[in-house]
């Protein structure tokens, strides 16, 4: 297959989409570091380019991801990707030029992956790089956006779309439109905090206003923002509404997945936020059919997407386009404040191709300790008792393994129903049977409000064998059969 010409993609605004532009200076920077960074449109992955055993990825999109995103790679089947991720949510939300609510890594093509395959992403390690973080509850600024403040930003005074800006001082008005000088961020933090981490990145404590202000003056340093990041650090706000709150760090990735088959804001690659794009009044509008077919639910905010987990993701574009971002320092189920401590992090994952496994959305194999009680894997002594009882009852007991099918939708109830339906189609059983199995062998857990859930169940091993993932699941959980 011949190499694609890297022509710019024309947007609905009549010019190149900014996420398709890759700086020649940045490419030369990587060449000086002896990193072989290869760029493709994923529509035509080059077969004659050798795959890498490991790819270092610390370059980012402009907030939009999809089939016209350029890719790094390809990485070999069985190879590793080392992501250096930027903070998601608040920083990108405050930055007028970013076109999504995150600033995710540029996707990486995986060798040999075709549309209709899947990729198992084994999460090996995660290192917190930030010294501090800030977050809180948001309120959109009237007039500073068209339809969606995460996506279609504009200056509320001069109406310049995605205005160029400068940061002057600290606080909520620090981000100024270069054209007219007015505050240009489309969000305000109505109640929030600044948190400092200990040296070992195990604990965090929220600080008072004086220290928050000093941190704000050195925001990029305390956030440890990567050199290529374009965002304004949320630490610039210097918010300190609830000092003295202590918590534990339990870091994970809010985004770890595959590229959607339609160009969309990265934060909206999920069934809840993605619903806001249906017939939206901005250039990233999609149809209901695209919403139901093309998204990959890469934006999960499920706190079990951490080292020791495996995420099996659909390939809806050639090469799958594995990407990461939106690392969090900690989060309770639901992310009920809308946001949590977004951090800079370094994540190492290993990718494995699963041929001919067509998925609607991700399957998650969390660390064993994160599974709900009824979905815990069977251990050898337990399984011997199960077989003894089954023999007494003259019934052949099925071998099973825990899996979580991700459900997503505009609301939690819709997400749960969609999760049941996805599981039913995946395992070729009725929705009613799925609900029964979830009730007695699993659970429904909230990943994020308003609409991400984990549908856990003990799936029959014979069905996992048909899908080509039985060996992966058995090994992951050390099952006795």
Descriptive key words:
globular, eleven-stranded mixed sheet, 10 helices, 3 domains, Jelly Rolls, 19% helix, disordered N terminus
Description:
With 481 residues, the chain is an alpha+beta fold. It has 3 domains: 18-129 and 250-361, Sandwich (Jelly Rolls); 132-248, no CATH class; 371-477, no CATH class. The protein has helices spanning 24-32, 90-94, 209-217, 219-223, 288-294, 380-392, 412-427, 431-441, 461-467, 470-477, and strands at residues 40-41, 52-57, 64-65, 70-85, 108-110, 118-128, 132-140, 165-167, 175-177, 187-197, 203-206, 246-248, 252-258, 264-265, 310-314, 322-328, 345-354, 363-365, 400-408, 443-448, 452-460. The strands form 5 sheets. Strands 1, 2, 4, 5, 6, 15, 17, 18, 19, 20 and 21 form an 11-stranded mixed beta sheet that branches. Strand 4, helix 2 and strand 5 form a beta-alpha-beta unit. Helix 7 (412-427) packs across helix 8. It is globular, with a radius of gyration of 22 Å. The two termini are 43 Å apart. Residues 1-44 have low confidence and may be disordered.
pLDDT averaged over residues: 92
- Strand percentage lies at 25-35%
Question: Based on CA inertia axes, which overall geometry fits?
Answer: globular
Structural class: alpha+beta
CATH architecture of the largest domain: Sandwich
* Structural domain count: 3
Q: Helix fraction?
A: 10-25%
- Helix count from the secondary structure assignment: 10
CATH class of the largest domain, named: Mainly Beta
Span between N and C termini? 43 Å
What is CATH's topology name of the largest domain? Jelly Rolls
Gyration radius, in Å: 22 Å
Low-confidence stretches: 1-44
């Amino acid at each position: 297959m011949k190499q694609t010409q890297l022509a710019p993609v024309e947007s609905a605004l009549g010019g190149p989409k900014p996420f398709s532009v890759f700086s020649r200076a940045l490419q030369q920077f990587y060449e000086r570091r002896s990193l072989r960074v290869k760029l493709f449109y994923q529509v035509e992955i080059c077969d004659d380019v050798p795959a890498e055993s490991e790819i270092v990825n610390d370059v980012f999109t402009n907030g939009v991801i999809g089939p016209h995103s350029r890719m790094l790679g390809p990485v070999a089947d069985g190879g590793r990707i080392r992501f250096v991720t930027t903070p998601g949510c608040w920083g990108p939300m405050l930055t007028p030029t970013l076109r999504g609510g995150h600033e995710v890594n540029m996707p990486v093509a995986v060798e040999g992956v075709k549309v209709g395959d899947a990729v198992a992403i084994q999460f090996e390690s995660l290192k917190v790089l930030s010294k501090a973080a800030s977050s809180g509850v948001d309120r959109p600024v009237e007039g500073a956006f068209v339809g969606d403040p995460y996506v279609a930003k504009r200056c509320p005074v001069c109406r310049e779309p995605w205005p160029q800006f400068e940061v002057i001082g600290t606080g909520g008005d620090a981000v100024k439109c270069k054209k007219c000088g007015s505050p240009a961020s489309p969000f305000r933090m109505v109640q929030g905090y600044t948190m400092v981490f200990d040296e070992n990145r195990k604990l965090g404590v929220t600080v008072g206003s004086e220290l928050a202000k000093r941190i704000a003056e050195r925001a990029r340093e305390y956030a440890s923002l990567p050199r290529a990041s374009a965002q304004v650090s949320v630490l610039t706000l210097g918010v300190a509404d609830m000092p003295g709150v202590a918590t534990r760090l339990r870091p994970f990735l809010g985004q770890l997945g595959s590229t959607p088959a339609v160009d969309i804001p990265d934060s909206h690659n999920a069934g809840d936020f993605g619903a806001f794009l249906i017939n939206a009044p901005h250039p990233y509008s999609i149809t209901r059919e695209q919403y139901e077919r093309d998204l990959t639910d890469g934006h999960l905010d499920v706190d079990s997407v951490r080292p020791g987990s495996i995420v099996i993701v659909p390939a809806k574009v050639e090469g799958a386009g594995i990407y990461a971002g939106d690392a969090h320092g900690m989060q309770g189920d639901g992310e009920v404040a809308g946001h949590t401590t977004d951090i800079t992090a370094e994540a190492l994952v290993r990718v494995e191709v699963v041929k001919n496994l067509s998925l609607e959305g991700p399957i998650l194999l969390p660390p064993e300790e994160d599974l709900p009680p009824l979905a815990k894997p069977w251990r050898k002594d337990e399984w011997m008792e199960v077989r003894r009882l089954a023999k007494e009852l003259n019934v052949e007991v099925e071998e099973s393994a825990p899996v979580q099918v991700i459900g997503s939708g505009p609301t939690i109830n819709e997400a749960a129903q969609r999760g049941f339906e996805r599981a039913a189609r995946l395992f070729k059983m009725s929705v009613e049977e799925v609900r029964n199995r979830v009730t007695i062998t699993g659970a429904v857990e909230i990943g994020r409000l308003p609409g991400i859930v984990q549908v856990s169940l003990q799936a029959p091993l014979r069905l996992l064998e048909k899908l080509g993932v039985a060996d992966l699941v058995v090994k992951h959980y050390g099952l006795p059969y």
